[in-house]
């Protein structure tokens, strides 16, 4: 992370200094203001979904979900406590339903539930991360919405290809994490 | 169809909560309160990513880099017009959607390039952004093989997207 961030900043700013110094500072500050407007938008989304997810928790539905997902969770991340299992189940469900950013809070909770205070990510944490990064959704709602707005004659044509592609990269991701977990043992 | 799924699930949930004699309103408010925490802890990471993305795009580094890797991508069947999307998709979701709209405008929304682009944008998430935000509550700063695996898996997803859109 540090390497990529530093590299992009150094080379990018270097290029800006040579080619277009006038916009260098505005673009850096633009990054900041775009981050705040996204965070505000996400805040609203998180508040709504966390409210709804709390209802899921207090009615005990998350435990039912977690029983349903239990074999899968065991296979993917191994043994973990009930709270983390529940959060992982909520995360998987909201991913599958294509609830977009709604899966972020449960993802953060699941990863901090797996956390043991170490500086090193464990393979269980990386598994949750990769499942989210390769996107599990059944229907790519955002992209279909964009196609409708752009006046496509067949906006939903991409649903099946996208589903196949996301199945491929999710499977590849899971296998790679399992493989890397075997090669590089967890450190603490 | 998909427009009906989530609102009906929410309705069923509220109904279920009513049957269970749970104080639904209180649960909602308590849950919504925890959003402060998530927004505040993830904000610094989001700023860091966004500044880098902004510099990456504005400096022309994005174009240079995608021109540089385009021949390599073409070897795997990813058209050079889509190489920038494949790269940017690793950093930011919103940024790549903006790029996708440019592709719609330039090549037509039902063209092969636009469909393959949709598939690429829809099948993966921004690994750098997700890593930064998902680990924001922990002390972890050594992500080990997480980012390489994420990039590789999504790259294979992109190759597959371009392939599958060619045959359907």
How would you concisely characterize the structure shown here?
The complex is a heterodimer of chains A (188) and B (168). Chain A has 188 residues and is mostly helical.
Please characterize this protein's 3D structure.
The complex is a heterodimer of chains A (188) and B (168). Chain A is an all-alpha fold and 188 residues long. Chain A has 8 helices and no strands. Chain A has helices at residues 2-19, 24-58, 61-77, 82-96, 103-114, 123-133, 141-149, 159-183. The longest helix of chain A is centred in the N-terminal third of the chain and has 35 residues, at 24-58. The model of chain A has no long low-confidence stretch (mean pLDDT 90). Chain B is mainly alpha-helical. Chain B folds into 2 domains: 1-33, no CATH class; 38-167, no CATH class. Chain B has helices spanning 2-19, 24-33, 35-58, 61-75, 83-88, 93-107, 112-123, 127-134, 146-167. In chain B, helix 3 runs antiparallel to helix 8 (127-134), helix 6 packs antiparallel against helix 7 (112-123) and helix 7 runs antiparallel to helix 9 (146-167). Chain B starts with a helix and ends with a helix. The model of chain B has no long low-confidence stretch (mean pLDDT 92). At the A-B interface, helix 1, helix 2, helix 5, helix 6 and helix 7 of A face helix 1, helix 2, helix 3, helix 6 and helix 7 of B.
Q: What is the topology?
A:
The complex is a heterodimer of chains A (188) and B (168).
Chain A: H1 2-19, H2 24-58, H3 61-77, H4 82-96, H5 103-114, H6 123-133, H7 141-149, H8 159-183
Chain B: H1 2-19, H2 24-33, H3 35-58, H4 61-75, H5 83-88, H6 93-107, H7 112-123, H8 127-134, H9 146-167
Helix pairs in contact in B: 3-8, 6-7, 7-9
């Amino acid at each position: 992370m540090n390497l990529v961030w530093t590299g992009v900043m150094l080379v990018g700013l270097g290029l800006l200094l040579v080619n277009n110094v006038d916009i260098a500072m505005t673009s850096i500050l633009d990054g900041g203001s775009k981050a705040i407007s996204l965070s505000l938008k996400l805040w609203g989304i998180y508040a709504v979904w966390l409210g709804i997810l709390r209802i899921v928790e207090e009615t005990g539905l998350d435990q039912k979900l977690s029983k349903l997902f239990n074999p899968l969770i065991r296979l993917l991340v191994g043994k973990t406590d009930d709270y983390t299992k529940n959060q992982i189940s909520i995360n998987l469900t909201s991913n599958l339903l294509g609830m977009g950013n709604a899966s972020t809070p449960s993802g953060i909770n699941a990863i901090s539930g797996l956390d043991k205070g170490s500086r090193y990510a464990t393979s269980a944490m990386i598994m949750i991360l990769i499942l989210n990064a390769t996107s599990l959704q059944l229907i790519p709602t955002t992209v279909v919405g964009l196609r409708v707005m752009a006046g496509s004659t067949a906006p939903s044509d991409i649903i099946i290809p996208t589903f196949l592609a996301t199945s491929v990269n999710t499977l590849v991701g899971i296998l790679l994490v399992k493989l890397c977990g075997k090669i590089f043992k967890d450190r603490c | 169809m998909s427009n009906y799924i989530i609102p009906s699930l929410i309705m069923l949930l509220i109904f279920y909560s009513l049957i269970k004699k749970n104080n639904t309103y209180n649960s909602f408010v308590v849950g919504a309160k925890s959003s402060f925490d998530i927004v505040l802890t993830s904000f610094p990471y989001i700023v860091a990513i966004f500044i880098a993305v902004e510099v990456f795009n504005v400096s022309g580094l994005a174009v240079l880099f995608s021109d540089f890797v385009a021949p390599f991508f073409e070897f795997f069947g990813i058209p050079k017009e889509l190489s920038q999307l494949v790269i940017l998709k690793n950093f930011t979701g919103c940024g790549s959607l903006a790029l996708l709209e440019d592709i719609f405008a330039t090549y037509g929304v039902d063209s092969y390039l636009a469909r393959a682009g949709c598939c690429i944008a829809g099948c993966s998430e921004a690994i750098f952004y997700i890593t930064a935000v998902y680990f924001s509550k922990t002390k972890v700063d050594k992500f080990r093989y997480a980012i390489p695996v994420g990039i590789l898996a999504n790259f294979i997803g992109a190759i597959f997207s371009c392939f599958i859109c060619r045959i359907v």
